[in-house]
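Incident log, structure service

09:12 report received: a user says their structure output differs between two submissions of the same chain.
09:20 pulled the input from the user's history:
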Amino acid sequence: MLKLVLFLLSWMLPAYLLSQGFIPGWSGERVISDVIFLDTGLWTKNQSSLPDGDTCKLTADDALHIHWKYGPGKRPKFAQAYIVLPTPIDLSGMDVFGIDIRGMSGKQWARHIEFKFESVGQQAAYTWENLGHLNRWGENLVILKKQFSNYKSVDWSSIRVISFAVTMNSGDDSDIETDSGIVSFRNLIAQSIDQFARANSFESLSAVPADQLDSIKGNAIRAIADRQKSSGLLTTWTPDGSSWLYGQGLALKALCEEGQWNGGIPANDYADAAARLAHFLSAHQESLGYWPRAWNSVSGSILIKLEGDNTVWMGDFPWIPGSLACYYRKSGDASVYPAIMKAKAFMYDLIDSDGKVYTKNMVTGLKSEVGNYEGYAAVMYGLLELGDTVKANLVMDYVMNHGWDETLAMWQEGPGSSRPVLLVNTWLSALARIMNYETESIEALSLAGKLLYTRGPGDPYGFDGIGPIATWYEGTLSYIASNGPGSNGLFTGIIPHINSDGTVPAYNENLGAVGGIWAVDWASLDATSWLYFAAAGKTPFAFSGANSETFTAAIQTTEGKVDMYLSGEILHIETGSTVKNGSGKLSIYSVYGTLIGTVDWHADQQDYDIKKITGSNSLSPGIYLAELQFQNRIFVKKFLWMAN
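09:34 re-ran on a clean worker, output below:
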């Protein structure tokens, strides 16, 4: 049987994938035979329970087809077919299920697919959102047993009923007209997790010629820099001109990798692009220390400030202080230091002593745990770039204790969600490898390589984020940058699909919102940044040149035009001869970036009473930062406050 499976795989998969030893994808056992599955006489339609105007009928050839029709009206609508098995089946040893599903083009986007197993008196259900509009076969769509609702209560050793349904919600006021379509099902399979072969080693891009990798890397970083607008922002999506926060942070790290500085002055185009982006981010930080999620790349105006629930998305935010910290270390640019410290204070306030990470509702001030371990990974990136390896390891230990699935040997999506998600496992694998969890790293990458492997509507083969439905370039390249098994074959498959300008698309298909993903083939800043890291043989997570003292020490400016020092309770400011007039702002921060007080500054005034600036007669002894802003420049000085 094994030889037959390998033969079939060798026929189905490109030779370059098999040559690496690790075979992406998986093939399980049939849950029921096609003789039973395709016999429409064994299936029952819910015809008698459908409202007037709704119909459901079944046909079969090499697949089972549900022909559904919804009548008019605003209400929940569904068309269901179920089979009562002649003999109950035992699925207690199965951990993963897969099935092929095909829908058809139609009204966008409220046709969901529901899949159920039933034992006596209990149902376990899973729903794919909007999948009824996928007008091609989505092959081997993966559902973990743990993803089914009520899975713990079902007697998996005695499954009696299997059902499929096409459903819609009643919330769309415009969704009241008659509508119809066909959804098809085939190849229902299952597998025990013990039968998934794992790789025992990581894989670098040793099979791709070095000069080719260097060319791809060079084209990618140039494409990133070419996305920069006069505002300093990089365009994430060219069709709509938006700039999303995570992409800015990831790309800034790439620009810092290629940037060169001479005495703090940018010495190449990438250093100049990094400086312009860093200055925009530093100047457009929210007062409490976080950043908006998205801007208009040209105007710099805010498109999206917070998540829909008014929280800060922690999968994005920590990339900015982390990459600004990298930029500061390489450039010595003191102007970004206050922004780093404010962001550091905001982030540290959201990390518990046990490593648990929170987000904050910026309207109510209430904290809640980050719902996705991708956010935990981003926090660890920020901590490493800030030089805090102790706290980064603390967060990693928390994730291992709460997010690692011992049965699957893979990280779950987040607290309360067992869904296999690609970025969670590629990001955490890269971090785990440098935090003494190397075994878990390769195990998780291997299982992601099995469960999420796809080819979408055609080449290139790769991975989807949660599907698998279509090839996601960003996720696939993050897997390669993490040295996932099979990386050479995957990268070789992507190379012909790199755009002439050095970018890569987000997905290999325009699906919009189907199956829980947002798939578009627009050239992507995020995916192109990951192309850079993959071709460079680097991961943004694996490097930290930070010293823990870097972001508590004083900043020495190179201007030589302003000096600040404390004499008793008075902050004395001396300006060079070039500063004869002008005004600005003088601010006092804690060493962690918390703003304590601000006053207007004028060039002809030298002495400022700290107590008057801070509005406090009982400022606690400790280290503080004085920040002077004027003429588009920022000067920062650290001082020790001893007065009571």
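09:41 both user submissions now match this output. Likely a transient worker issue. Closing.
09:42 reviewer note: The CA atoms of residues 94 and 192 lie 4 Å apart. The chain has a mean pLDDT of 88.
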